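Please, structure for the following, as tokens.
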Amino acid sequence: MTQLAPGDDAAPATSDAPEVVQTDLGAKDGLTKCQRCGSTEIALNVATGMLRCAFCRHEQSSENAHEAFDLRGDIGDLAGLVVGSGSSDISESTEVVLTFKCSACGAEVVVDTAHSTQARCHWCRNTLSVNAQMPNGAVPDMILPFSVTKEEAMRHIDEFVKKRTFFAHPAFKREFNASNVMGVYLPYMVVDVNAHALLTGQGEHETARRTTGEGKDERTVYDADLFDVEREFDIHIDDLTIESSSERLDQRTGHNTNNIINSIMPFDVENAVRYDSNFLSDFTSERRDSNVEQLGPAVLEQAKDIARHRAIDTLAHYDRGVRWDNEDIEIKGQRWLAAYLPVWLYSHYEQKGGGRSLLHYVAVNGRTGETMGSVPLHKGRVALGAVVAQVIGTAAGIGLMVTMS
């Protein structure tokens, strides 16, 4: 969401040191028990969005993250850099393997936070969880629970692939099985931005047009007035989502199909809740490995895109377009929170010629069901389809000529 306001002088950031919002206050590692029966078998009930005990079926709600961290204020009041404690810089020296003493039986339990924040005690079978944040990117500030079930995701993937079966590679068709889809919490940064935009350039307004020449030499000539154009305004960006996994940030389409995941946005991050590792039961997750400083340029580029888009409504007079020569975006305030967002992923590993390979994804937004994917193609069928389309186009052209004659 963006809001425009009359341009004011841009205020400098108040301090180089970030203001940290502690988002794991009261979080406890170890056993998280059901409030009614004491079981540690707690997981997300996708149908209700609440955590449910597997034994007594008791369900408990979680606190909305924006309300818990008091993030409903005016973005225009943001100044300097504010970060959630789960968004703090990652310390490379921090261990990802933690050892807990099970408070139920006393056994030592190892949790590899590079892959999960939960582990089951091998003696008493109780589940131990990591909820307190550590500087290795494993525990975010908030989490957006799945609301699309696996069965619904399978249906979306089946429908997506069915429309592309004719051109799909035979190996993909043989191996395709939508039930292999996995629910994954992917790491993102959710960013609020208070910025000042100054766009300067030139715009053209058409004053006349005429046709000159004849036959092949015929062309249309335009007359236009040229104007210097300047737009200056404040811009408030609410809940901008940026991938925070270096692997997912790699958008080279010749090497991967990560761009597919971007196409299933947006997520309703305003409904995210305070992080609780029990939401990860029955799902997998990826750990954040990028810091605010590394992701800042991506936020700035998206802020420029948003500023250009918001200026469009004021440019109707320049019917031959505007070329922006300078795009100055000064970020006056920003707030960063680390989040886990839900995605259903179906993957297929394609072995290509020359020892090359490509991992294809069909992704389903775990909140909205929006689906997009990449399917390996059968080159022969694609070529045949192109030939058929050309023949049909030629035949249609001949028919049109006959009709006109």
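The chain is about 20% helix and 35% strand. Helices lie at 65-68, 150-162, 170-175, 246-249, 259-262, 292-311, 379-404.
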